[in-house]
Design brief:
By secondary structure, this protein is of the alpha+beta class. Helix content is 37%, strand content 18%. It is built from 5 helices and 4 strands, in the order H-E-H-H-E-E-H-E-H. Strands 2-3-1-4 form a 4-stranded antiparallel sheet, with helices on both faces. Strand 2 and strand 3 form a beta hairpin. The relative contact order is 0.27.
């Protein structure tokens, strides 16, 4: 994709009415192919949408037509460069001063999604070392465009650069 598309994408994210963003990274080194990532990341965010926002907040968002939770997911990594594929991005923080609830809910959702994907692939989920299923969450303390520029950088032949790396099926923002 062009640099212009990346600029438009960055502007779209910046135009969201989000008060606080957190950075996240989801890892599972056994997902070594790009096509293995979409389904579990999408499933993890669907579960997160159901479990993280509190009920009153969720009802208000649904009633007003705003996404229950804003997030954007971008694939990262470069297998030829020795960096395992992973998902990373921004997720909205809702009434969670220390990010405790968000971190716990993301860990639970990601572990559950990885387990389901492994079963779907015909593998025995008892073979999974849950220490391989990792989630990092931390507060974004700057303009989201700086972090998005970092995420959209070139990462090798697996992913390329820019909006080519955005996982649209695991991105929920207003239009």
């Amino acid at each position: 994709m062009t640099n212009q598309a990346t600029k438009c994408f960055t502007k779209w994210v910046g135009d969201q009415s989000v008060d606080r963003w957190a950075l996240f990274t989801l890892e599972f080194p056994r997902f070594t192919k790009v096509e293995l990532w979409e389904s579990p990341v999408r499933a993890a965010f669907k579960q997160l949408e159901k479990s993280y926002p509190k009920s009153g907040y969720k009802k208000h968002r649904v009633r007003t037509g705003v996404p229950v939770l804003n997030y954007v997911t971008i694939l990262g990594g470069d297998r030829t460069g020795g960096v395992a594929l992973h998902a990373q991005g921004l997720v909205e923080v809702l009434d969670d001063p220390e990010l405790t609830r968000l971190t716990l809910k993301m860990e639970s959702a990601w572990k559950s999604a990885v387990t389901r994907q492994i079963r779907h692939l015909g593998c025995d989920s008892s073979d999974i070392n849950m220490n391989e299923v990792k989630v990092w969450v931390r507060e974004l303390d700057s303009d989201p465009s700086n972090y998005l520029a970092y995420l959209n950088r070139y990462e090798g032949h697996d992913l390329g650069f820019g909006v080519n790396k955005v996982m649209l099926s695991a991105t929920m923002l207003t239009h």
